[in-house]
Every structure is written in C-alpha cells, then in structure tokens.
Write a structure and sequence with these properties.
Number of strands: 0
Low-confidence stretches: 2-7, 9-46
CATH architecture: Alpha/alpha barrel
CATH topology: Glycosyltransferase
Strand content: under 5%
Oligomer: single chain
Distance between the termini: 29 Å
Radius of gyration: 19 Å
Length: 360
C-alpha cells in the first residue's frame, strides 16, 4: 500500500449492522428504544443509553467546532480536496446542510470552494484521484439536500470523469486516466458513485459491474482483500468488504471470511485499540471498517463499534480535535488535524445515519 502522503498529496494525506442501534432519528432526537450498553473504558460508572448518545453527540459537536475554527476565508481547509471533502462530510454526517443547521456559512463556503476549483474536465483534485473521489462524494451528499443548479452541473461532470477513467479491469488509480488500478483508490470512486446514484445522478450500469468484478478479483479466499490483487491487509480488506456492500453484493461469499479476518484487529480496551491495534493507517482503516461492520450487522457490529467508539471518546483533545495514534503512518501528515478530526467525527457519525451513502 502506498504511503499516506502519496494518497493526499505533498504534506497531507487522504485517506463512514447497526442492528437495533439507532442513536438519533432524522430530527436529531433519541429513539424510543436505543441499544443497551455500558460504555466500557470511559473511566466512569456504567453509562445509560442516553449518556452514550450524549457523549457521542457532544464529541462530534466539539470536533465540528474545531474544524470550523480552522476554515480559511476562501472556504477551504487545505489545498487538498480530500481534506476539504472530509471536512464537509463531517458536518453533513451530523445533519448539517448549507440551508439549515448551525453551520450554513461553513458548508456554503466549503461547497463554493470545491466548485470554483474544479477543472473543466470535471477533475476535483490538486494531486490525485483520491482527492477527486472524496470531493465528489461530498458534493453528491450535499446535492441530495441542496438542489443548486451549479452544484448539479459540476457533480455530473465529476461523475462522468470517474466513469471515463475506469481501467479495463474495472478499477481506478492515482491519475485520471484508464491505465491501471488499485483497491485503495477504487473504493473512493465506488463510494462516490453510490452517493451520486442515491442523489439520482445516473451512473452507467456497466461501470458498476466492472467495479464489482475488479473488487472481487482482489479477494483472498481464506479472508481478506489485497491492494492490487488477492491478498490481505486491514485497510484494503475493510475497503473491499464495504465496496461490495455498497454495490449491493451483501451476500458475496468473500465477505464472511474477511469479516472474520478483521476480528484480529479488535482489542479488549480503548487504549489497546488506540495504541496497539496492529493497523498502520488508523483512521483510514476505521473509516471503512466501521461502515463495513455496520452493514454486516449482528455480533460483528456489536463487538466492534463500542470499542472503537470508546477509543475515540477517550482520545479527543480539549480543543475538540483528535491526534493520530503514535507510531502509525498517519503521524505528521496534517499538522492542522483536520484530517484526523474529520475522520473521527465520520466514524462516530455512522450512529446518526444522516449520510445516505452510509445507510443500509
């Protein structure tokens, strides 16, 4: 897998069954029967359901305030649309959109920056297709709630670019050209296409079929997905499972053994999840793994999400930001902590179900 700096460009990196758990409804209110949990690892007495909800929401809100404080006058957070896309997604994952919520100006300015910097070809990037995939995802999620004509036009251009840069094998690579592919770039385009389809932006069915075949070609039968072909690795395995799930292949035979493979990266305590999980790219991994476990549901979800949640709740800084775990490949890639803070918010945001691309 390439270095994280390659993913996000110079100096910055790129990188969302709940079962019965639903922490808030669409109006932001707790449901009548939230899940029972004791919130292990939170250095307190066992927590009630409402206390867990309160902690998750409070942590996300503090993270969003930190991100707001770092937005530049032009609406950006960095000269990198992976960072800018993640920041916007964090707000939308909490239910904020340009025309309502507490952050209309933040979202409007961020959207306008993406639109203003799109190239005539439709490319939303300063360096790679990682940026383009995340920026397209952010615009697609926004368009579903903000039917701005300019947004629609430029989102269609962005989707068209993804379609025409698909490789003959069905994947995508760093550059906007159909020459090569790897799973880590491919998953970004798949999530963006899923979001565009949800927003009723048409996607060529042939593109989807080829993407499915490429993802399946990276599967390792005993469990796992590789970077360019059959193999294993926590990041690519989580990404491979989620790709198939978002493409409608929930019953694919490669998924159950991969979910079992991912269990080896689950630790007993929040501190162990943070410091010794055996994962090189902590946020990239958990961004996909949390979603994959939610989609899979059952025991896997019930075992996974409380430990990841508690690790993040324990490690939030006093200013609302999150650092990256020591010794991982993400250390130092974004000194402003927008990447890590937005990713932490997005991992926690899955409880709220506001982003259609992350719903079942």
């Amino acid at each position: 897998m390439p270095s994280i700096r390659r993913w996000l460009g110079p100096g910055i990196l790129l990188t969302a069954g709940l079962g019965t758990l639903l922490l808030t409804d669409a109006a932001g209110q707790p449901p009548a029967n939230p899940m029972p949990t004791s919130g292990p690892g939170l250095n307190a007495d066992p927590l009630t359901e409402l206390k867990v909800i309160e902690k998750v929401n409070t942590a996300i809100d503090r993270g969003l305030e930190y991100i707001r404080s770092k937005q530049k006058r032009d609406g950006s957070w960095a000269r990198n649309h992976a960072i800018n896309g993640l920041a916007l997604l964090a707000y939308m994952g909490r239910g904020h959109v340009p025309e309502r919520g507490r952050y209309p100006d933040v979202l409007r300015k961020g959207k306008n920056y993406l639109l203003a910097t799109q190239q005539p070809s439709g490319y939303l990037s300063f360096s790679s297709m990682y940026e383009h995939g995340l920026a397209t995802l952010a615009l697609a999620e926004m368009y579903g709630q903000d039917p701005d004509p300019e947004l629609e036009t430029k989102l269609r251009l962005a989707v068209s670019l993804i379609e025409r840069t698909q490789s003959p094998r069905g994947g995508w690579r760093y550059n906007p050209a159909p020459n090569n592919q790897d799973l880590s770039v491919t998953v970004m385009q798949i999530v963006a296409l899923r979001a565009a389809n949800n927003a009723e932006i048409p996607v060529n069915p042939r593109v989807i079929e080829k993407a499915i075949q490429y993802v399946k070609s990276c599967a390792y039968p005993p469990g796992g997905f590789g970077y360019e072909g059959p193999g294993q690795g926590p990041q690519t395995s989580a990404a491979g499972v989620l790709s198939l799930q978002l493409l409608g292949k929930f019953d694919d035979k490669t998924i159950p053994p991969t979910m079992e493979y991912l269990r080896q990266f689950l630790r007993n305590t929040p501190q162990e999840m943070w410091e010794s999980s055996g994962v090189q790219y902590f946020y990239y991994f958990h961004y996909y793994a949390m979603q994959a476990h939610y989609q899979f549901g059952g025991k896997h979800w019930n075992d996974w999400h409380p430990k990841v949640r508690d690790a993040l709740l324990e490690r939030q800084n006093s200013d609302g930001s999150w650092d990256v775990p020591p010794g991982t490949a993400e250390v130092g890639v974004d000194p402003n902590k927008i990447y890590s803070t937005a990713m932490a918010c997005l991992v926690l945001d899955i409880y709220l179900h506001f982003l259609p691309a992350y719903q079942r």
